[in-house]
NAD(P)/FAD-dependent oxidoreductase (Fodinicola feengrottensis), 507 residues
Amino acid sequence: MTQTQRETSAAATETGPRRVRVAIVGSGFSGMGVAIKLREAGIDDFVILERGADFGGTWRDNTYPGAACDVPSLLYSFSFAPNPDWSHAFSPQPEIFAYLRRCGQRYGLYRFARFDHEVRGAAWDETSRLWRIDTSQGQYEARVMISAVGPLSEPSLPDIPGIESFQGKLFHSARWDHEHDLTGDRVAVIGTGASSIQFVPQIVDKVGKLHLFQRTAPWIIGRSERRLSAVEHRTYQTFPLAQKAVRAGIYWSRELFVLGFAKNPKLMKVAERLSRRHLVKQVPDRALRKKLTPSYTMGCKRILLSNNYYPALSRPNVDVVTDRIVEIRPHSVVTADGTEREIDTLILGTGFHVTDMPMAQWITGRDGVLLADAWKDGVQAYKGTSVNGFPNMFMMIGPNTGLGHNSMVYMIESQLNYVLDAIKYVSRPGVSDVDVNPAAESQFNVDVQKMLEGTVWTTGGCVSWYLDDNGKNTTVWPTFTAVFRQQTRHFDSQAYEVRSTPALVDA
Ligand code: NAP
């Protein structure tokens, strides 16, 4: 953030109205998307409450070495704000973060941002029909609250006995400690997910020893990485339609994965063969290859893309450990076979709280019901957006909107249509709030769960963060993304209880 932006944001905090039409919590792709669409609709009476110091969400926080997007650059951006200048086929984190900050400037969002405002509680006030939102810097009232906190924002720390006694350096991949010099360190990395496979190759030459603790071997395929040429840049700058066409091609080629994921998981065998070939080519050592061979159907967990992960694991200073960790001691990690490995630094690549969304602990709806209690039998929402008992609250990337195959920005843009339409609806004279009907919410989720039957996520033989503690898939959208786009094209007020309080509607 520039000095001017910081000043603008700070000044707005001191003098701006604390009662607003819309409060957006979170400012990653989805929070920014809502703000941009509000501005386009001529609605300026809103704030963006953000606990961090800038826009960017996950792309601001995940600064670990090698952080990059595994969705191609030309697809991973707002469709209405194309960037013809991506340097690579797959963008590194600093470029995506810079892109989002540019969007913040281009759409004039900085003056609406309240940075360093951590939301600690939000409660629906039935009398005034407003959301009362407590932040680390005071209270806000809003007619509509948009939760855009993102499902991958709260690091998940493993509950391993003794971890709190560890006396070396410890950090999570999403809170990388750049001050800490890893040179020569004996390092333990826990986890072999999308983040670890990106940072492990970047640190392997620096550290003295790297113990990589793998619980489940991921499926990995090669990444068609390359620099985008000057000719491509010029073409996209001059002919935006060419960029649109390439983007559409990438979108549809990825969309085909739904056939294997959701329609006929046997089709995944083809991709599995490609991945095995990649493994054989990159890992000559049979014993290591055996450890790295997945034992579930590809797609059940997120498919990972990497050209340098397997080669990194063949380095002499790397030890891939598949024995279960039973204890962490002040200076070591102990596994079930009794081996104790001395370490200086422990890096957690252990993912995020997804199915137990932390925001459920601080949002209270009608009759004082906590969202976590409304969700005690499982997380669910109507169209991934609305929950009965929580009027005028709309979630971005809520339950069952996640993807394993395509760009989340597509899903976000679908929801933007719906949410903006909903905001306009509750701004109509005579309307104070809308609350989704329990029957509509329930039927939607019955349909989603039915569609999930027989998909790779339920039959693939893995345990993944797509599933909650009861084995229910509350995260993944079960079919083509175009279906979601269709379902969210307009706000469907008939699925909601529409309420009016004449004395309050002009509040
Ligand atoms: P993740 O995919 O959830 O991986 C977490 C890893 O930690 C897994 O290998 C898991 O093992 C392991 N783990 C968790 N708890 C453990 C414990 N108690 N003991 C031992 N191992 C444990 O997390 P992530 O790598 O941070 O990625 C999260 C998501 O972020 C991804 O799925 C993706 O959606 C997104 N992401 C995207 C990109 C991108 O390029 N666009 C890059 C990074 C992340 P199990 O597999 O056995 O559970």
Remarks:
- The chain has two domains: 3-154+355-506, 163-225+238-348.
- Residues 3-14 have pLDDT under 50 and may be disordered.
- The domain at 163-225+238-348 is CATH 3.50.50.60 (FAD/NAD(P)-binding domain).
- The pocket of NAP is lined by residues 68-71, 152, 158, 160, 173, 190-196, 213, 215-216, 302, 325, 349-352, 465 (CB under 6 Å).
